[in-house]
Design brief:
two-stranded antiparallel ribbon, about 0% helix, binds zinc ion, Transcription initiation factor TFIIIB
């Protein structure tokens, strides 16, 4: 997968983008039991604080919705 590049905040125009990792209880689970989960990575505008983009580290663990 190509890394997604965000060079500029669409909301305030700031080019300073930070990366945040949501850990622990904030991990996104692939099952209701919470046994399988993975970290959520956010790209954050350091100017206005908007979360510009979020992704999970291991998208393969999630079931395809039928
Ligand atoms: Zn911004």
């Amino acid at each position: 997968m190509e890394p997604i590049k965000i060079e500029k905040c669409p909301y305030c125009g700031n080019t300073s983008i930070g990366i945040g990792y949501q850990l622990g209880q904030g991990s996104l689970s692939a099952s209701k039991m919470g046994l399988t989960g993975c970290k959520v990575v956010h790209m954050i505008c350091r100017g206005c604080g908007s979360i510009l983009y979020s992704r999970v580290e291991k998208p393969q663990i999630f079931k395809e919705e039928k």
